[in-house]
């Protein structure tokens, strides 16, 4: 078996291309995923940023929501950024009507917590488990985590708010590391995938 993990990027909506590039530079074989049969062929999955309500509805429409839940429950490594973090939360504080999550991390998230699109910003974020100094994070209508359960571990905070969480094989960040050219968070995720293959 090759040591190169196959990692999908959920390609229903959002910044898919940037994640594919970041994963490839972290020595993974990256491919876009839209259908359950494609999901069955990957070792891990990234759920990108985008619009969480739209992604939730598209996941239902494409028949992906239940297969995603099953794979995550079965231990498939998964990494969610921004909207992806919201989809990995077991609970959303202020969900839109009909909005569902994949779940997998025992946390409560608040959508758009850092403000609207025009309040987007970049910040240096210290992430536990990543060497070489802070990661540059891009926050775009980003959520934050209100609280975590006993199984979830906070791995980064910014401005007194939780912005990165890990629980078992699941990782989530409020920010977009794929937009910065710093691929250390993706490298961490690729290592998580390798560890369970």
Strand and helix map with partners:
Elements: E1 6-10, H1 16-25, E2 29-33, H2 36-39, E3 44-47, H3 52-61, H4 65-73, E4 78-81, H5 83-88, E5 89-92, E6 105-110, E7 121-125, E8 135-139, E9 144-148, E10 153-158, E11 161-167, E12 170-173, H6 184-196
Parallel strand pairs: 1-2, 1-3, 3-4, 4-12, 5-6
Antiparallel strand pairs: 6-9, 7-8, 10-11, 11-12
Instruction: Report the mean per-residue pLDDT as an integer.
Output: 94
Number of extended strands: 12
Termini Cα gap:
10 Å
Name the beta content range. 25-35%
Question: In one word, what is the shape?
Answer: globular
Q: Mind telling me the C-alpha Rg?
A: 15 Å
Q: What strand order characterises the main sheet? A: 2-1-3-4-12-11-10
Secondary structure class reads: alpha/beta
Main β-sheet description: 7 strands, mixed
Query: Secondary-structure element sequence?
Result: EHEHEHHEHEEEEEEEEH
- Low-pLDDT sequence parts: none
Task: Describe this entry's structure for a reader.
With 197 residues, the chain is an alpha/beta fold. It has six helices and twelve strands. It has helices spanning 16-25, 36-39, 52-61, 65-73, 83-88, 184-196; strands at 6-10, 29-33, 44-47, 78-81, 89-92, 105-110, 121-125, 135-139, 144-148, 153-158, 161-167, 170-173. The strands form three sheets. The protein has a seven-stranded mixed sheet. It starts with 5 loop residues before the first strand and ends with a helix.
